Amino acid sequence: MSSGPAAPDWPAAPQALPRHQGPAEGLPLHDSATLRRWEAEAARGLPPHALMARAGAAVARLGRALAPHARQVWVLAGAGNNGGDGLVAARLLQAAGLRVRVWLAAEPASGDARWALAQARAAGLAVLPGGPPQPPADLGPDDLVIDALLGLGLSADRAPAGPVAAAMDALDRLPAGILAVDLPSGLIADTGGCAGRAVRARWTLSLLGLKPGLWTAAGRDHAGAIWHEDLGAPAPAEATTPRLLDAPACAGRWPQRPHAAHKGSQGDLWAVGGAAGLSGAIELAARAGLAAGAGRIHAVRLDPAAAPPSHPALMSRTPQALQGEALARATVVAGCGGGAAIGAWLPALIHGAPRLLLDADALNALAADPALAQALRLRRTSAVLTPHPLEAARLLGCTTEAVQADRLAAVRQLAQRYGAMVVLKGSGSVLAAPDGRCAINASGNAALASGGTGDVLAGWIGGLWAQGLDAWDALRLGVWSHGAAADAWQADRGPGQPLDALRLIEALQDLPRR
Ligand SMILES: NC(=O)C1=CN([C@@H]2O[C@H](COP(=O)(O)OP(=O)(O)OC[C@H]3O[C@@H](n4cnc5c(N)ncnc54)[C@H](O)[C@@H]3O)[C@@H](O)[C@H]2O)[C@@H](O)CC1
Ligand SMILES: [K+]
């Protein structure tokens, strides 16, 4: 960029403070192909039906714990092994003294499920396949319903019809809590999409491994609280599985603040945007960077007519100030409220900023200009992109529906195509790096669905990154803590209230840094 950099008055921010080692990258999430291999290997070393017996016992045990006052249980079982798990649970719950009724979609085909049905009948349960799914008339709110219609064997390309659809209709209308076996029926394990429709469970017990689809797209709305049972079968070593981004995966990864810290040691964040009429976005990003703890925050207005920042700790800058030494040590968050004007500044930022995060209008400019995309790929240092699904679709040249249909595939493709770290925002944000690392965020809730929360996220990640974290750590921690702040806020008030962007920044400041 052109003329007149401000002379630095403190030493440059270090590139990296001591690396913050957390216990792990997070729990692995397994795709269905891996789960099938895992199941086959585990079954080889066990007596017949042992895995199903363990699965059914785990469902029964958890059902008792979650619904301790239940007096009766209604089990809806499909004709596959998911239904077999439900039949085992039904038998065990009856043996524990509960009144159990079973609805079975059709005569089971697999050996395991036929065994489970025979055992259930031998124990005195009246199980006749087919017929209308009629819940027990006196089923109450304390009682338990077990959804064992469909699991990993769901055919994703057809919406459930016939008896299974009728059973799903019945599940929609029940007062009692629904415990889903392995997956809420109809939810696609690998993507979190629905095969037309899916059961809304209060709880899900995921068997063997955790599935990515429980955490992203429609997964969070359908799975309820997620429980895990590995059935005592050792997990396969899969290096490339996505990881669950949760509190333990982020523990101990916050930037260090040594006693002798000063504003020059905590990094320089430049928030670049602020086209006319859009200055609020840049102020939100800058304020979030300040809350994250970055040492000096510069708010760059691309249009001099745009309102200057109102927070007294933010330095109002022209774009010309971001060049030379200032640019060489800057962490730049570009695009929040940038309008079309941001495009002209991107070549210099892509070339000169050692840490660069592109959001909103910067992403739109990138999608529209192949030369920018090429320049980004050629960068030696990390860049971070923070698209929502529509921006991701523009970057990939596809529809928003295609992005949402397989969010993991979309984010991986973006990371490869642009040579950048990417977070695809939305319910269960997904993260990917060009080297194949991948994560799904477990925090956050619908309170975040309001204007400006994305600008806050961009500035918050930038503020963490400016303090010396490496790019992947800053991205992971930033995304998780952004959602965790909303979770803490909602825990105090209950669901349903939107969280405005300024309050979100306060909630981020209040979040304990452990
Ligand atoms: N794979 C594992 O990890 C283990 C599997 N077990 C259970 O077995 C399940 C997988 O069993 P299966 O492979 O038999 O599959 P499922 O029982 O999940 O589904 C197969 C059944 O669903 C029907 N179906 C599939 N798609 C449908 C659609 N779109 N609409 C209506 N009906 C549809 C099929 O006709 C078949 O009857 C797991 O989810 C789990 O509950 C456990 O027993 C033990 C370990
Ligand atoms: K199920």
Please render the helix and strand layout as text.
Layout: H1 32-44, H2 50-66, E1 72-77, H3 81-95, E2 99-104, H4 111-122, E3 144-148, H5 162-172, E4 177-181, E5 203-207, H6 219-223, E6 225-229, E7 243-245, H7 247-250, E8 268-273, H8 279-292, E9 296-301, E10 315-317, H9 324-328, E11 330-334, H10 342-352, E12 355-358, H11 360-368, H12 370-378, E13 383-385, H13 389-396, H14 400-405, H15 407-418, E14 421-424, E15 430-432, E16 438-441, H16 453-465, H17 471-493, H18 501-510
Parallel strand pairs: 1-2, 1-3, 3-4, 4-5, 5-6, 7-16, 8-9, 8-11, 9-10, 11-12, 12-13, 13-14
Antiparallel strand pairs: 14-15, 15-16
Helix pairs in contact: 2-3, 3-4, 8-16, 8-18, 11-12, 11-13, 16-17, 17-18
The chain binds ligand NAX and potassium ion.
Ligand NAX is lined by residues 35, 39, 51-52, 55, 78-85, 110, 150-155, 158, 160, 164, 181-182, 195, 207-208.
Q: What are the defining features of this structure?
A:
514 residues; alpha/beta; Rossmann fold; UDP-N-acetylmuramoyl-L-alanine:D-glutamate ligase; 2 domains; 10-stranded mixed beta sheet; 6-stranded parallel beta sheet; 18 helices; disordered N terminus; binds ligand NAX; binds potassium ion; NAD(P)HX epimerase activity
